[in-house]
Structure formats: C-alpha cells, structure tokens
Amino acid sequence: MFLDNQVTEIFCIVDEFMIEFDLTLRPNLIGSSKPPKRKPKLSHSEVMTIMILFQLSAFRHFKGFYTGYVQKHMQADFPKTVSYNRFVELQKEVILPLAIFAKTCCLGKCSGISFIDSTPLRVCKNKRIFNHKTFKDIATRGKSTMGYFFGFKLHIIVNEQGEIVDFQLTQANVDDRQPLKNGNILKKIWGKLYGDKGYVSKPLAETLFNNGIHFVTGIRKNMKNQLMPLFDKIMLRKRSIIETINDQLKNICMVEHSRHRSFHNFVNNILAAIIAYSFLPKKPAVKFYDSQPDDSVQITLF
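RE: above sequence
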C-alpha cells in the first residue's frame, strides 16, 4: 500500500520536528516536569506517522487499519506496536505537537494569488441530531449549498499551486466571512484573494484592502454588474481549484466522517488529514506559462 521511501520520508520529517519540540517547547508545558507513569513502546513520532499514513490509505476505519495492516504488515517499520486501546490513549498526547506541526511545517506560502472557501464537516446525519451525544453543546447546525447539516466548518486558504496556506475550524453556524474579520488568518496572505458570492461584503473588502489584500468575489443576482479585469474574471472561474482540494480532503484524506467518539479524536483526524494532504505527490493547480516566444507574453490558464 505504501512505498518504503514514503513511510521513511514522513517519519523522518515528523521525528526531526519532535526532536525540536522536545528541546524547546515541552520543558515549558504545564506538568512537563512530572515523568510519565508508563513509558510507551511507541514514540510520539511513530504515533503521528501512523495517524498520517492512515489518512493516505484506502482504509475508512482506523481500527481496521491499525490492527489489520500496521500490526501485521508493517512490523519492519513499527516493530514495537501497542494494543489498539493503548494507541487511542497515545493519540491524546500528540494533539499539541500535531497541531504545531500542521501549522509550521505543512502549509504552503502565499504567492500573491489565493483562494478561500469553507466546507461543511458533518458529524452525523440530520435524522440523528437529537440522539447525537459526542458533540452535544459543541457542534451546531449550519447551512451550505447542499442544505442544512450538523457539525463544523473548515475554512481553508490555498495558493495557485494547490497548497494550503492556512486553515481554521469553526462551528457550523459561523458566517464564512467571520475568519477574515478576525484577522488571524490574514497574516499569511497578501495580493489578491478570490472567494465565492457568500463572501460579498463591502466593509470586509475595504478592511482587507487596508491590509494590502485585494478581495475579489462574484456578484449576486440582485447586485448591479460591475467592470472587472479579464485576469480577475478568469481567476474567479479557476476558483474551482479549492473545490477540488476540499473533495480530496474528504475522499482521499478523509477529513470528514461520523464515527468520532471524542472531540480529541475529531481534532486529531482533521490535523492528520491536512498533514497527509501536504504529502500528496500531485495536487490540483492553476498553471501559468508563456505561449509566445517574442517579447509579448500571454498567460494561459488550464
């Protein structure tokens, strides 16, 4: 299922990060002075690697992946595996390093052209909302283009190379424009930002313009038509790149499923899925190239 160099590459990158994490951040954590009561056989680097590999696998249930594949067919890579219940306990210990690793080592850089969108993360079917207990008082109801749902929203910003520049998780009833109003997600982007009609807001566009960001969106049916540069019109049509990325996050990296048994497991699954996406060998991209050999340059997008 996995190539040997792929497993080795992911483990080496994660292990190098964990070495720096243990030297710089772990001594400053609350309760870090207390030695662990039980030293685990699997290191935190191995736990994180297995979680990332699961998102890249064809398995749709982690227990089947761990007990049926890792413990049977990956003994050469992970010789000291623990029981499944013990591994679930170890997952809670890596939530902080997993979040820092996703934010610092797995995100792309803004190149001046960015796309923003949100995707719903359903935690259960609508018929089971009143019987759902795992995310009671945490998840909320929201509405997307596909109708009402119960869960959360994942807001992502990507560049034209298909790399995730930044992401943020909110409740389902939060407006799509709210992460842009907070300002934290804007620290990594500049230039032009393209969004759909749900982001239309004149005050928001003015605020972003003052921060050096040209916000470009489509117009709604009840709005007057406005002149727009041809490049911006083409890039709005190419905004489907972020829809493709959301599709890969859900169907390949499995960022969304309804089998969570705790909020920690839910967050770990999202972080591992975003990290796994950064290791995909081929990502959807909008490519530019010069089609004329003379001094005049023509930009072609496909």
